[in-house]
Structures are given as structure tokens and as C-alpha cells.
Write a sequence for this structure.
């Protein structure tokens, strides 16, 4: 009988160097977990986030397989191809190489071989790529934060209504047991009626501001114009993009043209938990006010903020930079969860409460990647569809606008617009350079 290793070795290699497996593989050869039965995933963006958590997690999956990687940095692209090929070679004890490298994401999206994409690019590229992915019928796992402004996120949500693709915000916090447990207790009324929510993000990106940098030659391995993409054309300097041939925390995370900074970077995790526990995943506040400080120079995101939100039902939320936690206070007690897994409550009765069969059980302990792939297999929604991710990051961006405006703002969560404030409304959209695509 043909063994799995023999079958893979005898597979046909096309002119591109990709191993092409038959559409139908005999079950006696590979069984239900055959590569032909798995979801073909392409990685778009091969930086720090991709090579550390994302690619290794997907390599372990029995539901999907990475068939393509894409990056505008040739060094990163070549490394990602090697990482995937080696991962499958080690796992399967064979010379199977099913990964193809691309420098242009549009070629990935036009490939019939690709079923789903995992987008791990700088934030300013998230929405344009996700929109094009949806239009090409690709399921989408999108790194957090999904957008750099509310208007772009709403545009994606509207596009997704027209295309039946599965979507997932790639944040693992909803699948962390203690976080989902905290939300389960709150949404099942174990602390009574929610009155106040406190949350904070860590000061990871804080430090000395970086002064303006001199223009540098563009590295030979980087397609800088494509890296800029929808962002405005500006001279290259390394601290604006990422370090050459390295995977440290990139400079673009502190430049407001490409990222909102820590308010959204970690806020995408913790605000998502706050919104989930408050059962406001598809809506938002009616009042926002806050204050904060911004770095000066090339790195110019917020280094301090203190923001207050008020919902229509009277619930108040307070958001700042401190330590990574979410605290829910209700009429009958409180629950607090601090990253990574410190769960406390005002009483052991609350902390140890059992959730009955007829009550809402929201825990889903699949990893974020397995949740995404399972949803594609079953046709069901993921635990964090992109519309909820949009509402989550909108909360962060509303706070950012309130700090910039320096005044109390009134918000219509249904229309997603400010009430009687044209200056604030003008900040909902960031103009883009439409050289590569239109949103």
C-alpha cells in the first residue's frame, strides 16, 4: 500500500516549484487530514507578528495549511518561505514544500489555490487588503487593530455584507480561559447590573520621543512605495518602517500615519473584552471625553491618556495607560481580569459561580487560529467577527479623537457619527493614496 511519505514524494511539481496535489486524494493514502482536505491559507505580511505567533500556530493546525506567503521585504519573504517549508518538512518527515512566495498581495488574492488569508501587515494596510480579499472570496483573519480610523473600518463592514466570507479578528484574548470566564460571569449577571468598567493598556511603546530623522537610501530588499501603499509618500528612514534584517518592534507602530499607538495596539485586546462583557459588541457609547499627551517628532503617538465613555444605559467606562486589565463593577460586586490570567472578584461566591445549562455560556477555548479555521469548515461565525472588531477599535479611535479635540463629544452609535460637531466628524476618515487600489 502507498504510504503517506511515498505519496508526497511522488506528487507532481509544477513549473512554479509548488507541489500540486490532486483535487481528490484517496482516503487510504492520507485520510481525513489530507492536505487536499485542509484549508489553504496565505500569509500576507511576514514581520515580527507573523513569524513569531502566527506562522508557528498555523503550522500546527490539522485544519489548514500555509500554501503562500507575501511581503514587500525580500529578506522577510525568503525567511518566511523557509520557515514554512521547514515546519512542514519537520512535521511530516519528508521534503514536501508547498509554500510559494509573493511580493504583491494582489497576486495572492487572485490565486485560486488560496482559500483564506491571514493579514499581518502594518495597520494602515489592513482595511484595503481585507476589502480586496473579501471581493476575491477569501476568508479573512485580520491582525489587530483592524483599522487606523473609524471610517475605513465601517467601509470594510459594509463590503463584508456583500460577500459571504468568514472573518476573524486575530486577537487571542477571547480564547484565554480566565478572560472568557470573567465575561461569562458578568454577562450572566453574577455581579448584578453593570455600572462601571475600568480598563488599561501597558506602557509598552512609551519612552523617549524620537526626533525627526534624516532621509536614508531605501534598502535594496524593500519595495518602499508598496510598503507605503495607501499612506502618503514620504522620504524613507529606517525608524519609520522596521529595522533591516531583524524582527524587533518596528518604528511604524509609533507613527500615526500607520498606527494609532498603544491605545489601539493593546486596546484592541482589552477594549474587546470590555465591550464583550458589557454586551455592546455591535454598538458604542453616546458620550466621550478625555485628555492625553503625544510624543513629538517622527514617533508621534499618544504616550498618556485618560478617557471616559458613557453608554446610553448609563454605564461608564474609564480607559488609560497603566497595567493590562479589565474590571467590571456592578450592583452586586465586581470582577477583574489582569493579563495574562489573574482573575479576582469581590467574593468567592461570584468567582466560583457555576453557569447553568439554560444560561448563556460563552466560553470557547479554541485558539484564535483554530476558531477561524473551524468556522470556515462549519460555515458558522467566529468568536470575534470583524464587525465586532470594528466596534472595538472604534472605541479606541473615539477616545483618540476626544483627546485631540479636547472637549466632550456626543456620539450616535447607530449612524457612527458625532452629533453637531463637524470638526470631530472630519477626523473619522483618513485620506488615502489610491495608487494601488480604491477602497
Amino acid at each position: 500500500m502507498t504510504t503517506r511519505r511515498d505519496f508526497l514524494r511522488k506528487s507532481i511539481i509544477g513549473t512554479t516549484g509548488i507541489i500540486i496535489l490532486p483535487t481528490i486524494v484517496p482516503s487510504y493514502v492520507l485520510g481525513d487530514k489530507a492536505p487536499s482536505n485542509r484549508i489553504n491559507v496565505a500569509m500576507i505580511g511576514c514581520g515580527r507578528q507573523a513569524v513569531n505567533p502566527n506562522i508557528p500556530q498555523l503550522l500546527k493546525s490539522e485544519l489548514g495549511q500555509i500554501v503562500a506567503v507575501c511581503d514587500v521585504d525580500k529578506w522577510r519573504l525568503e525567511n518566511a518561505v523557509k520557515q514554512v517549508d521547514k515546519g512542514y518538512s519537520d512535521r511530516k518527515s519528508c521534503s514536501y514544500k508547498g509554500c510559494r512566495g509573493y511580493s504583491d498581495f494582489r497576486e495572492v488574492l487572485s490565486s485560486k489555490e488560496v482559500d483564506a488569508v491571514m493579514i499581518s501587515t502594518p495597520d494602515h494596510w489592513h482595511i484595503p487588503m481585507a476589502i480586496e480579499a473579501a471581493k476575491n472570496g477569501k476568508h479573512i483573519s485580520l491582525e489587530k487593530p483592524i483599522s487606523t480610523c473609524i471610517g475605513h473600518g465601517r467601509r470594510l463592514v459594509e463590503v463584508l455584507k456583500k460577500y459571504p466570507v468568514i472573518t476573524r479578528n486575530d486577537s487571542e484574548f477571547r480564547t484565554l480561559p480566565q478572560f472568557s470566564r470573567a465575561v461569562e460571569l458578568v454577562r450572566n449577571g453574577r455581579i448584578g447590573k453593570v455600572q462601571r468598567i475600568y480598563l488599561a493598556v501597558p506602557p509598552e511603546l512609551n519612552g523617549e520621543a524620537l526626533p525627526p530623522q534624516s532621509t536614508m537610501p531605501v534598502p535594496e530588499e524593500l519595495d518602499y512605495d508598496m510598503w507605503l501603499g495607501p499612506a502618503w509618500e514620504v522620504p524613507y528612514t529606517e525608524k519609520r518602517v522596521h529595522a533591516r534584517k531583524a524582527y524587533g518592534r518596528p518604528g511604524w507602530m509609533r507613527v500615526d500615519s500607520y498606527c494609532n499607538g498603544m491605545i489601539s495596539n493593546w486596546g484592541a485586546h482589552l477594549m474587546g473584552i470590555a465591550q464583550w462583557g458589557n454586551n455592546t459588541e455591535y454598538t458604542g457609547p453616546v458620550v466621550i471625553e478625555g485628555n492625553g499627551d503625544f510624543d513629538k517628532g517622527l514617533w508621534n503617538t499618544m504616550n498618556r491618556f485618560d478617557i471616559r465613555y458613557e453608554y446610553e444605559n448609563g454605564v461608564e467606562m474609564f480607559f488609560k495607560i497603566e497595567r493590562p486589565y479589565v474590571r467590571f463593577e456592578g450592583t452586586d460586586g465586581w470582577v477583574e481580569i489582569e493579563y495574562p490570567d489573574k482573575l479576582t472578584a469581590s467574593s468567592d461566591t461570584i468567582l466560583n459561580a457555576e453557569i447553568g445549562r439554560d444560561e448563556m455560556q460563552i466560553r470557547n477555548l479554541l485558539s484564535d487560529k483554530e476558531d477561524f479555521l473551524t468556522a470556515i469548515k462549519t460555515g458558522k461565525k467566529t468568536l470575534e467577527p470583524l464587525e465586532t472588531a470594528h466596534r472595538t477599535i472604534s472605541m479606541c479611535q473615539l477616545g483618540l479623537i476626544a483627546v485631540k479635540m479636547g472637549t466632550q463629544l456626543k456620539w450616535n452609535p447607530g449612524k457612527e457619527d458625532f452629533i453637531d460637531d463637524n470638526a470631530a466628524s472630519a477626523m473619522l476618515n483618513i485620506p488615502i493614496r489610491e495608487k494601488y487600489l480604491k477602497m
In short: The chain is about 30% helix and 20% strand. The longest strand covers residues 302-310. The CA atoms of residues 258 and 305 lie 19 Å apart.
